[in-house]
Amino acid sequence: MNIENTQSQMKKGVLEFCILSIIRRGEAYPSDIIEEMKKAELNILEGTLYPLLTRLKNADLLSYRWVESPSGPPRKYFSLTDKGLAFYAELEATWRGMAGAVERVINTEGQETRDEGEGEREEREGEQPLTVNS
């Protein structure tokens, strides 16, 4: 099994969520998105970002506006639409549930929960179980 392929698939799985997270904070220019992703050690190439932004725009999750640039051609700044904000909220809820579930699996708490009764697990933090569909 190739570890690089598995790592790449994991990153692709969160790429859209991270990009929407950046844009949610305010209008974003693609090179700013790339820079912020690099700072987070999630490197993304323009050849990956632009098609993703186009797909999100075509799904009515993003809008853009042109801004004149003093040093070249106009720049396209992206923002979330109302539909994009609702989509992001769903992704964030899914991420938080999934991240919490993964943390429980990889930490020692996972061993402790095997010893709990069914009722105790259901009561723990009022969490809903994460269902994974393949």
Detail the topology: elements first, then pairings.
Blueprint: H1 3-24, H2 30-39, H3 46-58, E1 62-69, E2 72-80, H4 82-106, H5 109-114, H6 118-123
Antiparallel strand pairs: 1-2
Descriptive report:
The protein has 134 residues and is α+β, with helices and mostly antiparallel strands. The chain has one domain (9-109): Winged helix-like DNA-binding domain superfamily/Winged helix DNA-binding domain (Arc Repressor Mutant, subunit A). Helices cover 61% and strands 13% of the residues. The protein has six helices and two strands; from the N terminus they run αααββααα. Strands 1-2 form a two-stranded antiparallel ribbon. A hairpin with a 2-residue loop joins β1 and β2 (72-80).
Quick recap of the structure?
This protein is α+β, with helices and mostly antiparallel strands and 134 residues long.
What are the salient characteristics of this protein?
single chain, 134 residues, alpha+beta, Arc Repressor Mutant, subunit A, two-stranded antiparallel ribbon, 6 helices, 13% strand, globular
**What name does the CATH topology carry?**
Arc Repressor Mutant, subunit A
Number of helices: 6
Main sheet properties: 2 strands, antiparallel
Mean pLDDT: 86
Characterize the overall form: globular
| CATH level-two architecture | Orthogonal Bundle
**Low-pLDDT regions:** none
Domain tally: 1
Radius of gyration: 19 Å
User: What is the string of helix and strand elements?
Assistant: HHHEEHHH
Structural class by SSE content: alpha+beta
The CATH fourth-level homologous superfamily: Winged helix-like DNA-binding domain superfamily/Winged helix DNA-binding domain
Write down the CATH class: Mainly Alpha
Spatial ordering of strands, largest sheet: 1-2
The beta-strand count equals 2
Q: How helix-rich are the residues, as a percent range?
A: 55-70%
